Amino acid sequence: MQYIVEPIAALIKWTFDNLLVPIGDLAGIMNPNTIFTILGGLGLLYWLRMQSKYNKKAEQEGGIK
Fold this sequence. Notes:
Number of domains: 1
Low-confidence stretches: none
Structural class: mainly alpha
Largest sheet: none
Oligomer: single chain
């Protein structure tokens, strides 16, 4: 079992040390928190716009009472 778990643990540790830590150290607008927040906000606006269109279409066709 150890021969399966050790390589997976080494891969996770390498990923954290070499990818996630440097990404987290980025400053300003390139900060992952900022990027995810902006993308989430844009996704929310897109979804609300599409929902508004679907609601108007349903009202015109008599789908919403």
